[in-house]
Amino acid sequence: MPSPSDRKVVLVTRRTRLEELIARYHTAAQARFYVESLGADFSDYQREHDAYAAARRSVVGVLEQHGRYQVVERAFLANFLFGPGDVVLALGQDGLVANTMKYLDGHPLVGINPEPARYDGVLLPFKAGDFGALLPDLLSDRRAVREVTMARATLSDRQTLYAVNDLFVGPRTHTSARYEIRYDGRSEVQSSSGIIIATGLGSTAWMRSVVTGAAAIAGAWQGQSAVLDYQPVPWDAERLQFAVREPFPSKTSRTDIACGLLARGEELRLRSLMPENGVIFSDGMENDHLAFNSGTEAVIGVAERRGRLVV
Rounded to 10 degrees, what is the CA torsion of 131, 132, 137, 139? Predict the structure, then answer.
């Protein structure tokens, strides 16, 4: 491990909503015209952008004092190579922390909240103003870290994708996914909207929505309010949850395997029956996906690597 003064700090950023609009409409004036023509408040986009820019200037100012640093935009994470001794910062919303962590292998990751008045920041325990005092501890590994269990999908051709929140297996578009599923000694062919496989961290996000929606629909059809005692899984739990979205029973598809748990060492196996448009992506990053088309088999389970979130 290099000395604290030699360690590189990598700052991961993402474009603000205003920057996304400018990329689309070329100028801030045209972006403003588009938003206000729809009756929306453009000033909120500007306030958010200004707050993020100020937080970034504050963090970069500290990094300039340190000397060894690099700024990476979220869109380039899939092709970025982190050094083994790098300290990694994510300046943005909680989703940016998850998007960054899945590309790390044991690196300490710091979530920085650019605007605490706007974002709850479950994964963002620090503000930009904290960073100057925090950096020496980070470089010397004197801060506590919280372990985060990750999921892994491995294809038959050995391609691998990791997830911090969840994996999605299904169609790229709003069509039916067809696949063979094998779990706990059982197997069947299914037609559905896809499968969600969630970690402990992800059990509070998309998976919670899937379970809540299913319970509400079932309760409504039975003419009663849904009673749901859903308990999220701890972040470091050595298990995953999976749920099939909208499984459809037919002469050629079944719905017996609708959900389940995967402890470390257990596997969920899926073989694609989709000629095209089958994908596996993680943590909402659809552009960084694995193709999952006819004949391809995916093995999903608890990953060998774990995230390390500085607290």
Answer: 90
Question: For 148-206, how does the pLDDT look when each residue is reduced to its tens digit (9 = 90+)?
Answer: 999 999 999 999 999 999 999 999 888 899 999 999 999 999 999 999 999 999 998 89
Strands 289-291 and 268-272 turn out to be: unpaired
Q: Is residue 227 pLDDT above 70, yes or no? A: no
pTM (predicted TM-score): 0.90
Cα(190)–Cα(108) distance, integer angstroms: 40
Number of C-beta neighbours around residue 61 at 10 A:
12
Non-local (6+) Cβ contacts of 250 within 8 A are: 191
Torsional class of 194: left (φ above 0), alpha (ψ -120 to 50), beta (otherwise): left
All domains of the chain in start order, with CATH = 4-143 (3.40.50), 149-304 (2.60.200.30)
Q: Are 220 and 203 in contact (CB under 8 A)?
A: no
CA 88, distance to chain mean position in Å, is 16
Q: Is the pLDDT confidence value at 49 over 80? A: yes
Q: What is the DSSP string of 67-99?
A: --EEEEEGGGGGG----TT-EEEEES-HHHHHH
| Tens digits of residue pLDDT in 106-157 | 999 999 999 999 998 999 999 999 999 999 999 999 999 999 999 999 999 9
Give the residue among 267, 118, 263 at the shortest CA–CA distance from 187. 267
Answer for the pair 196, 206: CB distance below 8 angstroms, yes or no: yes
The answer to whether 263 touches 302, Cβ cutoff 8 Å, is yes
Tell the residue number behind the tokens 């004092």, with chain if given: 65
Q: Burial, 246: exposed, middle or buried (Cβ in 10 Å; 0-12, 13-18, 19+)?
A: middle
Per-residue pLDDT, 218: 81
